[in-house]
Design goal:
The protein has about 290 residues and is α+β, with helices and mostly antiparallel strands. It contains eight helices and 15 strands. Bound molecules: pyridoxal-5'-phosphate. This is Probable branched-chain-amino-acid aminotransferase. Belongs to the class-IV pyridoxal-phosphate-dependent aminotransferase family.
């Protein structure tokens, strides 16, 4: 079966899909994106992803290319045409195509691309064993709360992690405090069992999974503290984990040369991950593919 992409109003073969060389996303990384999981044919936390997409666009003063209902319709069609039951949908919107010049172009419609891919999350063995992180300086700009396609520092950090056979890079500011990871939010569990993650601000991306896990933790009666923590505190924590649309809640058993806890996934993250799967199973949103 051929993969299908949506590009500016048309469904085209993925291998032929293209945007213009003067698309501002290509030339200035002047655009935003979203990634939504599809679980058993349903989008996960769909409203949260559309809310964040609208906010990212608003912050960059890029017009919505269509209504939210329109976005829903196209996303559903891309998922359906690619027969994705478990996977992700990727949505990218840029300020459009215009002769290269820094100021915003006038009367230029935004460009929109959507693709869908099969496969969601790592193999169960990965979470069962836990993953390692490397620490890396956070060299990103001051608006990390906007989900822009401008991901070069994230790419460099993730590459450093891959080269050291680590799952993720945990990003650390000049003050020694952790912001998040290259493509996920960072969490620790303190000795007395509190979950700690950095509060929302311009310093981190407000993860949709982060928000969902806070709600699930609350429902479990766990204490959640939204505060900053240092790399040293993370290395000495009882448990560490990362969260994202495709990793859910992923246990961490090592940061650099420091073993976390007893070197195995902790009980709190293991339980929280199970609750996240319960949430995925209980999803009652619209069915985009299958029955
Ligand atoms: C920098 C960064 N932080 C956090 C996240 C997690 O966000 P979400 O849970 O919405 O996938 C991502 C996801 O791509 C990310 O790129």
């Amino acid at each position: 079966m051929s993969r299908i992409a949506y590009v500016n109003g048309q469904y085209v073969l993925h291998r032929d899909a293209a945007v213009h060389i003067e698309d501002r996303g290509y030339q200035f990384s002047d655009g935003i994106y979203e990634v939504t999981a599809i679980y058993k044919g349903r989008p996960v936390d769909n409203d949260g992803h559309w809310d964040r997409l609208e906010r990212s666009l608003r912050e960059l003063r890029i017009d919505m290319p269509m209504t939210r209902g329109g976005l829903d319709l196209v996303a559903r069609e891309v998922v359906r045409r690619n027969r994705v039951r478990n996977g992700i949908i990727y949505i990218q919107i840029t300020r459009g195509v215009s002769p290269r010049n820094h100021p915003f172009p006038k009367d230029t419609p935004p460009s929109i691309v959507m693709t869908a891919r099969h496969g969601l999350g790592s193999k169960p063995e990965v979470a069962a064993k836990g993953v390692s992180l490397i620490s890396h300086p956070d060299i990103r700009w001051g608006r990390r709360d906007i989900k822009t396609v401008s991901l070069l520092p994230n790419v460099l950090a993730k590459q450093a992690a891959y080269e050291q056979h680590a799952y993720e890079a945990i990003l650390v500011g000049p003050d020694g405090m952790v912001s998040e990871c290259s493509s996920s939010n960072a969490w620790i569990v303190t000795k007395d069992g509190a979950l700690v993650t950095r509060p929302l601000s311009n310093d981190i991306l407000g993860g949709i999974t982060r928000k969902r896990l806070i709600d699930l933790a609350d429902a479990e009666g766990l204490r959640v503290e939204e505060r900053s923590f240092s790399l040293d505190e993370a290395k000495a924590a009882r448990e560490v984990f990362v969260s994202s649309t495709s990793s859910f809640a992923m246990p961490v058993v090592r940061i650099d040369d420091s073993v976390i806890g007893n070197g195995h996934p902790g009980s709190i993250v293991t339980n929280l991950r199970a609750r996240y799967f319960d949430f995925l199973e209980s999803a009652s949103g619209p069915l985009w593919y299958g029955h």
